[in-house]
DNA sequence: GCGACAG
DNA sequence: ATCTTGTCGC
């Protein structure tokens, strides 16, 4: 499959693929989780995507991969997938094994057309995915408690699209929404299960470091790159 | 027409 | 996203 270069084609593709999203949980709990994220190099001309695989429930990193792909789409709010997904997919393919779950740095269902980056990656790769964004794209919500674990529904046009989740006491919350093959209810629980002492869950926190050019130590150093 | 707007 | 160190506070 190739990726659209124009906004109108991208919008049409989201409308077509949104029908493929399935929001039901897998029968088995995930035993591995991959965090993915994209960074930029070459003055923004190239996406450097990272995928870090962790074992559950201990969250130990077991593998990592990096991929470089030329940028082919401008940054347009709600069309982030077309900028980062190609590179993220390449990184996931080089991981050596398919993760049981993928956590993305961006929205899933909490998107104008209900098809954020996490949904796109999930449908494309046919993998369970969750979106965990640092800021809001759409939706409203009630104030939430100040303690770790506090959570409130993210609503939009009368329907719940995700959760606003406080992963650390006294720190800005994250915006969690299911991407594919994960239920709204379990999405927040899985993100909490992947979070330790930082605001972001370990999978995306580590993927962000790798995508930003930093180093992450993986015990059995089986990393790949391209 | 005026804001809002994942990374 | 990205340019960037130390510092204040729980």
Automatic annotation (TrEMBL):
Amino acids binding Mg(2+): 37, 105
Q: State the Gene Ontology terms under molecular function.
A: deoxyribonuclease V activity; magnesium ion binding; RNA endonuclease activity producing 5'-phosphomonoesters, hydrolytic mechanism; single-stranded RNA binding
**What subcellular compartments does it reside in?**
Cytoplasm
Pinpoint the site Interaction with target DNA: 75
| Any single biological process term in GO | DNA repair
**CDD domains, A to Z:** Endonuclease_V
**Which GO cellular component term is one of those annotated?**
cytoplasm
Q: What is its main location?
A: cytoplasm
Q: EC number(s)?
A: 3.1.21.7
What is this enzyme's catalytic activity, as reactions? Answer: Endonucleolytic cleavage at apurinic or apyrimidinic sites to products with a 5'-phosphate
Q: Which UniProt keywords apply?
A: Cytoplasm, DNA damage, DNA repair, Endonuclease, Hydrolase, Magnesium, Metal-binding, Nuclease
What cofactor requirement does the entry state? Answer: Mg(2+)
State the family it belongs to: Belongs to the endonuclease V family.
Describe the function of this protein.
DNA repair enzyme involved in the repair of deaminated bases. Selectively cleaves double-stranded DNA at the second phosphodiester bond 3' to a deoxyinosine leaving behind the intact lesion on the nicked DNA.
Under NCBIfam families, the record lists: PRK11617.1
User: Can you say what this protein is called?
Assistant: Endonuclease V
**Organism of provenance:** Candidatus Viridilinea mediisalina
């Amino acid at each position: 499959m190739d990726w659209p270069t124009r906004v109108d084609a991208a919008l049409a593709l989201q409308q077509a693929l949104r029908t493929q999203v399935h929001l039901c949980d897998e029968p088995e709990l995930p035993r591995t989780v991959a965090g993915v994220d994209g960074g930029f190099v070459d003055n923004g001309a190239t996406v450097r995507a990272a995928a870090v695989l962790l074992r559950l429930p201990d969250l130990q990193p077991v593998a990592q991969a990096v991929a470089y792909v030329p940028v082919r789409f401008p940054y347009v709010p709600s069309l982030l997938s077309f900028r980062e997904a190609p590179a993220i997919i390449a990184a996931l393919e080089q991981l050596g094994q398919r993760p049981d779950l993928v956590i993305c740095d961006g929205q899933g269902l909490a998107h104008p057309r209900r098809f954020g980056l996490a949904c796109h990656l999930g449908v494309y790769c046919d993998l369970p995915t969750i979106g965990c964004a640092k800021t809001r794209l759409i939706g409203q919500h009630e104030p939430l408690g100040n303690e770790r674990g506090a959570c409130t529904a993210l609503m939009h046009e009368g329907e719940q699209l995700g959760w606003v989740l406080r992963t650390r006491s006294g720190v800005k919350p994250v915006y969690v929404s299911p991407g594919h093959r994960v239920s709204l209810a379990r999405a927040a629980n899985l993100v909490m299960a992947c979070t330790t002492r930082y605001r972001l869950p370990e999978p995306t926190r580590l993927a962000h470091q790798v995508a930003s050019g930093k180093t992450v130590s993986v015990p059995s150093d089986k990393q790949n790159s391209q």
